[in-house]
User: Which sequence fits this backbone?
């Protein structure tokens, strides 16, 4: 990410929600984005996730310069390369848990999603729940299914915006541990927005947002 700027509105009412932010994330790293409410965390994540276009700046992911892609190519890139976990699981209730997890793979044109989706559901502790309809499981189970769904297309980068914001402390801890073990075991790269930095323990990188600006800290052991 190079010199990212996102301005909402114009003239006197203009808000520089993201104000000249540059950072890089290496493959396999776990990065947190922290900062007070309104500091620009979600705006930044939406830019990185190609859900919103920056006012200026450059984004390059996995060797692809995103700014040169048209809308269609951007969507294809997003479906293939990125995984998302949000504050609310938003599973489709007409589908089973397994079908929900297979969906992003099917949308990206991937074949045979069932095997890996089942494996992920096993890893998140939902082996016995995967053939249930998605509205027949608990909130914590739904959020763990959402983690599996975010990983289903083996994304280069997983982006999560307050993935534990809607969970009690026990379920929150289990979702945090889950994401960290996916990073350690699968080498999955994460960028996670959170208000609960301490729940995550040691991570590789912390991006501290303040009034749209980013102040970066790196864990000592992560400085390479
Ligand atoms: N669609 C929008 N239109 C106009 N202003 C916006 C829009 N979205 C966000 N903003 C403004 O941009 C700034 C950053 O908002 P953002 O949602 O990124 O904050 P945040 O750090 O994610 O906050 P929170 O912790 O409450 O989720 C805020 O001043 C917000 O009011
Ligand atoms: Mg936010």
Assistant:
């Amino acid at each position: 990410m190079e010199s990212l700027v996102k301005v909402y509105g114009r003239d006197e009412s203009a808000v520089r929600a993201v104000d000249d932010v540059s950072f890089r994330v290496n493959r396999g790293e776990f990065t947190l984005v922290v900062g007070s409410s309104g500091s620009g965390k979600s705006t930044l994540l939406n830019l990185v996730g190609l859900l919103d276009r920056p006012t200026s700046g450059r984004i390059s992911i996995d060797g692809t310069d995103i700014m040169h892609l048209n809308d269609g190519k951007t969507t294809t890139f997003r479906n293939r390369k990125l995984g998302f976990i949000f504050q609310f699981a938003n599973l489709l209730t007409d589908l089973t848990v397994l079908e929900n997890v297979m969906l992003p793979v099917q949308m990206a044109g991937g074949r045979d999603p069932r095997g890996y989706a089942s494996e992920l559901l096993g890893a998140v502790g939902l082996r016995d729940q995967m053939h249930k309809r998605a509205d027949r499981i608990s909130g914590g189970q739904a959020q763990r299914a959402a983690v599996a769904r975010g990983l289903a297309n083996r994304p280069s980068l997983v982006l999560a915006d307050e993935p534990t914001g809607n969970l009690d402390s026990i379920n929150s801890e289990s979702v945090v541990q889950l994401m960290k073990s996916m990073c350690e075991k699968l080498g999955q790269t994460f960028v996670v927005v959170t208000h609960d930095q301490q729940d995550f323990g040691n991570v590789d990188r912390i991006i501290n947002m303040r009034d749209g600006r980013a102040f970066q800290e790196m864990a000592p052991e992560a400085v390479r």
In short: Residues 41-42 surround magnesium ion (ligand 2) (CB under 6 Å).
